[in-house]
């Protein structure tokens, strides 16, 4: 009987301790950090015959009060661009070719506040967030001085922004505050100039000028149907593609000529 | 309505290429030029990469010049014999021109030489045609039907071997003349990266002394063959012909060429010459502006002019 009593009190102690542990764990999780989430409205963009760009919205949940930065970027690549300069000190023309290494073809940065105000320079450089950080990341050649380098980086950004492939803006992310969590949402215009490929969408949670958490997802852009067939043929079967182009052009020329003759337009 | 262009990798409102095709096709049917010197920069302006713009334009010129040649042939305005001789010259000249570009690129500053050649040629040809047309219009008013004096150059040309009669044009020349001048235009066209219609037309009018209406038909005939060759080479080696864009352009340009031919027959030869001269001069002035004004962007895609 005595033995049974001792066993019963042991069960009570273990039960009490496990209850305390669970409560402490729950308390810890809710007070320190809940998982940062990210979703896009679609992860595949199909380029069909009537494609004219798309809209990509990014949304998710984060801790209330944290600042957020969203980066949408293509993988690093290289780009050759012609540089215009003054020949004979008078006439503007192409003076050479500049090579941009480690340059993503598409680069969008959105943030809840100005990136410079919420994130330290080390963190910006580490995660390549913002144009100044991108400037350090991209290699430009040939350039003779830092001054020249910074001039051509500025021109590169202007060129990309003109093509709608680069954008940077703050205060565009909408947040809806809950008790301890906030919902965030942004809708971006996806440019038709963005070529087929894989694009990485990353959201960074920022506190005390440091990135405390990040979440990622991907958007795939691919050609489908006739567009895929035509671009594949142009790239892989140039001779046949050329002959078809010529035959269609000749046929159209003669066809329209016949129509005009029948209609009496030419006489 | 927008369509996506699979090679240019861009989207375009279909009214733009159809409208451009119509306008440039009209000029093609009127003056016997391919219109590449107008179409290529316009396409670039609407966001088409330079290499795709040039290659696709050559493909649509095949359609426009077929349509135009057909319309002119029906009214007896194509001199096939002259056209073949010019083609032979143009082909040989093109080969030399490609070599000339290689040499220029090795020497450096090729862009400068090419651009300057282009501006000078456009300027000289435009100004000469403009002045000459005005003078001959005045002459026609004062003294109608006075036979033209033969210059020393004309006498020299007459003394060359292989004299042959070009029936449709109503002229007799040595076969060497169209071959040599066709070759000269071929060299320049290859260097400048254009079809050369704006050079071939004055050569036929002023050197070969062909009537303006036959010049237009014959020029279109030889442009047709040049552009077939260029289209194939661009598609085969550079993969830069955009089929969708070419079809949109040719929808406009084939109809434009027919309308141009109809208008052309209502105008006199002198009027046609003066109109072409004005267009060439306007393009020259536009290029001079581009060369002297600070461009909006200092970087551009590699591969264009």
Please identify, by name, the CATH architecture of chain A.
Sandwich
- Overall number of strands of chain B: 5
Class by helix and strand content of chain A?
alpha+beta
Report the span from N to C terminus of chain B: 30 Å
Cα distance, first to last residue of chain A? 123 Å
Going across the major beta sheet of chain B, what is the strand order? 1-2
Count of DSSP strands of chain A: 13
Mean pLDDT of chain B equals 85
Order of helices and strands of chain B: EEHHHHHHEEHHHHHE
| Rg calculated over all Cα atoms of chain B | 19 Å
- Counted by DSSP, the helix tally of chain B is 11
- Provide the CATH topology of chain A: Immunoglobulin-like
CATH class descriptor of chain A: Mainly Beta
- Domain tally of chain B: 1
- Largest beta sheet of chain A: what is the strand line-up? 2-13-12-4-7-9
Helix content of chain B: over 70%
So what's the oligomer here?
Answer: heterodimer
User: What global shape of chain A is seen?
Assistant: extended
Radius of gyration of chain A: 29 Å
Outline the structure in words.
The complex is a heterodimer of chains A (267) and B (305). With 267 residues, chain A is α+β, with helices and mostly antiparallel strands. Chain A has helices spanning 2-32, 115-118, 121-127, 131-137, 146-162, 225-236, 238-263; strands at residues 39-40, 44-47, 54-63, 67-74, 76-87, 91-104, 107-111, 139-141, 166-170, 174-177, 181-190, 197-207, 210-223. Chain A has a single domain (34-222), classed as Immunoglobulin-like, CATH 2.60.40.2550. Helix content of chain A is 39%, strand content 38%. A six-stranded mixed beta sheet of chain A has the order 2-13-12-4-7-9. Chain A has a four-stranded antiparallel beta sheet with strand order 1-3-11-10, with no helix packed on it. A three-stranded antiparallel beta sheet of chain A has the order 5-6-8. In chain A, helix 3 (121-127) packs across helix 4. Chain B has one domain (2-141, 149-292). Chain B is globular, with a radius of gyration of 19 Å. The model of chain B has no long low-confidence stretch (mean pLDDT 85). The interface between A and B is large, with 61 and 67 residues.
């Amino acid at each position: 009987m005595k033995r049974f009593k001792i066993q019963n009190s042991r069960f009570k102690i273990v039960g009490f301790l496990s209850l305390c542990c669970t409560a402490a764990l729950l308390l810890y999780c809710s007070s320190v950090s809940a998982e940062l989430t990210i979703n896009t409205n679609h992860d595949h963009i199909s380029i069909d015959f009537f494609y004219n760009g798309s809209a990509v919205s990014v949304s998710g949940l984060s801790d209330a009060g944290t600042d957020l930065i969203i980066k949408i970027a293509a993988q690093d690549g290289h780009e050759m661009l012609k540089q215009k300069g003054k020949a004979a000190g008078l006439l503007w023309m192409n003076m050479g070719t500049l090579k941009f290494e480690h340059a993503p073809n598409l680069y969008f940065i959105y943030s809840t506040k100005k990136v410079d105000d919420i994130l330290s320079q080390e963190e910006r450089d580490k995660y390549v967030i913002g144009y100044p950080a991108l400037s350090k990341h991209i290699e430009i050649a040939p350039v003779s001085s830092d001054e020249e380098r910074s001039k051509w980086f500025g021109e590169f950004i202007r060129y990309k922004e003109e093509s709608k492939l680069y954008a940077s803006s703050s205060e565009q992310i909408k947040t809806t505050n809950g008790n301890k969590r906030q919902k965030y949402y942004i809708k971006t215009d996806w440019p038709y100039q963005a070529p087929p490929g894989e694009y990485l969408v990353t959201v960074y949670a920022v506190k005390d000028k440091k990135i405390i958490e990040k979440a990622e997802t991907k958007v795939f852009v691919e050609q489908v149907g006739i567009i895929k067939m035509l671009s594949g043929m142009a790239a892989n079967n140039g001779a046949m593609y050329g002959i078809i182009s010529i035959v269609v052009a000749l046929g159209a020329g003669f066809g329209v000529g016949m129509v005009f003759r029948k209609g009496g337009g030419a006489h | 309505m927008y369509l996506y262009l699979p090679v240019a990798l861009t989207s375009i409102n279909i009214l733009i290429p159809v409208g451009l095709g119509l306008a440039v096709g009209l000029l093609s049917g009127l003056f016997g030029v391919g219109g590449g010197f107008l179409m290529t920069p316009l396409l670039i302006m609407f966001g088409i990469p330079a290499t795709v713009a040039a290659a696709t334009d050559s493909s649509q010129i095949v359609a426009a010049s077929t349509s135009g040649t057909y319309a002119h042939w029906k009214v007896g305005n194509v001199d096939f014999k002259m056209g073949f001789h010019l083609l032979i010259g143009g082909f040989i000249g093109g080969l030399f021109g490609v070599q000339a570009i290689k040499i220029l690129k090795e020497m450096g500053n090729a862009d400068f030489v090419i651009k300057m050649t282009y501006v000078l040629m456009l300027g000289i040809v435009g100004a000469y045609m403009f002045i000459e047309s005005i003078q001959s219009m005045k002459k026609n008013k004062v003294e109608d039907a006075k036979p033209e004096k033969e210059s020393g150059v004309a006498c020299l040309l007459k003394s060359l071997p292989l004299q042959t009669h070009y029936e449709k044009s109503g002229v007799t020349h040595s076969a060497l003349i169209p071959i040599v001048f066709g070759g000269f235009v071929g060299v320049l066209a290859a260097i400048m990266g254009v079809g050369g219609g704006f050079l071939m037309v004055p050569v036929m009018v002023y050197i070969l002394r062909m009537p303006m209406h036959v010049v237009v038909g014959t020029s279109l005939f030889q442009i047709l063959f040049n552009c077939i060759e260029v289209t194939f080479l661009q598609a085969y080696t550079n993969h830069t012909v955009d089929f969708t864009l070419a079809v949109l352009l040719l929808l406009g340009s084939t109809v434009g060429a027919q309308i141009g031919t109809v208008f052309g027959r209502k105008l006199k030869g002198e009027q046609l010459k003066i109109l072409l001269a004005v267009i060439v001069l306007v393009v020259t002035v536009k290029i001079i502006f581009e060369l002297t004004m600070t461009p909006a962007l200092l970087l551009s895609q590699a591969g264009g002019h």
